[in-house]
Amino acid sequence: MKALSILVLGLFLVSCGSKKLSREKAAELIQARYPYTIDWNIYTANPEEAAKLIDTDLEKEGFVTVKHKVSYEELGSPIVTFTDKSKPFLLETSEKDKKIHMQRVKLAEQHFDAITGMRLLKNDTKAIVEYTLVYKNVSPFVPISTLKIEPKLNRKAYFALYDDGWRIVEQPDLDFMIE
Predict the structure, then answer these.
(1) For 34, phi and psi rounded to 5 degrees?
(2) What is the pLDDT of residues 45-64, one digit of tens each?
(3) Is 110 a member of any domain?
(4) For the chain: N or C, fewer Cβ within 10 A?
């Protein structure tokens, strides 16, 4: 009976334990959002886009073909086509976008790297977590975009403790800014 009482007391104490956000729990919740695909829109009927593709050697490398001479009648129709070599980087494009001669291409994937810092706020019911991301699976289409590939990206996530546990807050309130 004494052992049973100790066991029940132990379970009670564990269940009433701290709900403090740990690095492991923060990492688990952040990792659930990654990998994240970065994409770019290429307008295949736009001569400026075609010029960018030529300047970046994507045509020489066999990812695209570009019509170098376009007649007046062909204006507004695609002058860029994607080859089989580019297929791994082509993303699903809606019918609406296809009508305007737009193709989405994959630039890279952002992957969670590590937690670099945590700050608990409001009696440990809110937290600001700093973490890093890395780029992986970088495509040859990056040079036509404005994306700058950095070795590591610093990011912040805002957490709040709810009755069912910790959640990432999309729109942080003033409580995160005051402390």
Answers:
(1) -125, 160
(2) 999 999 999 899 999 999 99
(3) yes
(4) N
